[in-house]
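#struct-pred
JK: can someone run the complex with 3-acetylpyridine adenine dinucleotide? inputs below
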Amino acid sequence: MTGRRVDAVVVGAGFAGLYMLHRLRDRLGLSVTVFEAGDGVGGTWNLNRYPGARCDTESYAYCYSFSDELCQEWDWSGKYPRQDEILRYLNHVADRFDLRRDIQLSTRVSAASYDEDERLWHITTEHGAQVSARFLITGVGLLASAPHLPSLPGLERFEGEWYHTGDWPRHHVELAGRRVAVIGTGSTGVQTIPVIAEIAEHLTVFQRTPQFAVPAQHHTLDADGLRWIKQNYDEVWNQTKWSIGGFPCTPHGRSALDDSPEERRKTFESLWAQGGLRFVVGNYQDVLFDRRANDFASEFIRAKIRERVKDPKTRELLLPCDHPFGSKRPIVETGYYEAYNRENVELVDIHSFPITEVTPLGIRTAAGHHELDVILFATGFDAVTGPLLRLNVTGRGGVRLPDRWAEGPSSYLGLAAAGFPNMFMVTGPGSTFGNIPVVVEHHVEWISDLIGHLRSSGHDTAEATPDAESAWTDTMARAAEKSVIPLADSWSTGSNIPGKPRTVLFYLGSYGAYRRQCDDVAARGYPGFEFSSAVAEPRSAPVSL
Ligand code: N01
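RT: done, structure tokens with the ligand placed:
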């Protein structure tokens, strides 16, 4: 293999890739190249530029904690940051830590294969360039690099424009005064629908499954608010580190079953008023684990929806009834339900009357035809495994990752996989789910600490053992038994993609519990990894989780 040789190749320049570059290059002194398929840094926030795109985690916790100076110098404009604001933040990080010189933009990795003799990864880009590296680290994100476009017959004949929200074009998309369709009512659809409703001549929403959405209660941050955040950052990060999902929020601590109906109503109202994901992570401790507790929260939300939507037929269609609250990733909204009270917004039920085809002039369902100028697919992503499988990774013995994971993925801690030495995944399948920058920061630090340990112990290769992988799979299965998440069809279980194996893609215990297990593995010298070097014999470490 010809081409450049570096210590590490990192794929992706979003939250994960930027910090990984900083850790490996500036802390460990490795030579690093980051390949980023997009035309700028920022990952998901560079791609998801649809109208209304905003994060639904509090801005002051949707960022890095590793640099106190960075925390102190950056001013967020509001409770929830807009897409362009997060993108500006990540560009600021790239400049502040002098990261750009090692990032190659507009360069998609098309293959990566492991050479057992040389103990190197050979990485090929779509332009045919080749780079060899000791370490391959994927920071491709959970979602963004694999948008899911349903195959609808006739789409190629549509005479209007169509876009996927997760691959929004750079040019201005004119929606004002036009007949617009949004297909999909997940977090993205719910975020964009009220914004488009304000400008479109007519907006038709194609809904397959109504979902639970809680109000954002967004507000701007004034000087006092910013001062409070900056003065309390230590406490904020301490709270997120051991929390349920990496959020700056303490759970309620009681069971919903122990309170009277009046006490429960007060608790739910208080969380509702605080807004956003607090209704999830600050709620009764059993809301996501006990169906009776969950039913109380689900019914509370349905009652709120009933209060907000005027038309009785539309109101009924918007009530989520076929899955428990929290089993699909909860949605945070601003003005979503009120959008349906507008004359120019129409809700179409494609659960009862599916889309049959796209025609040159619009969309036909089993119930009728809708004339359209623009179709927007807010239909989600081939999550978690999709971005990884697109890298065409081949490990030891010529085993391809898509073949290894044909029946569903397996991994050790979601960070490494047996048969793929020195390949590490940030937010890989089997890792934890939650507030992404916080989760990512943990993964990056854990992986870079492992690489540092490997080198200082005189080894050059670390590989997860099959036993460790299977022990982690059992741990994941035990955690999943207690959760409501496996009960719904959603991207978290892979069941949103036709033909994709249905499997729980995350460790569903809390983020804090996940973190504790990872820390324990590190403290015990990384049991579950086999360390080896070109000169020394492999050394096995047993695993017990
Ligand atoms: O995608 P989704 P998303 N025909 O998979 C429907 C993050 N995010 O882009 O429920 C018709 O949740 C599908 O219907 P159903 C966040 O983690 C964060 O909205 O499968 N409809 C559903 O309604 C989120 O969870 C922010 O029946 C089809 C929708 O499309 C994740 O991204 C903002 C269909 C897809 O919902 C994904 O959210 C936005 C078909 N063939 C997103 N296929 C923040 O604020 C799918 N659908 C941080």
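RT: quick notes.
Residues 115 and 308 are 60 Å apart (CA to CA).
DSSP finds 17 helices and 20 strands in the chain.
JK: thanks, will look after standup
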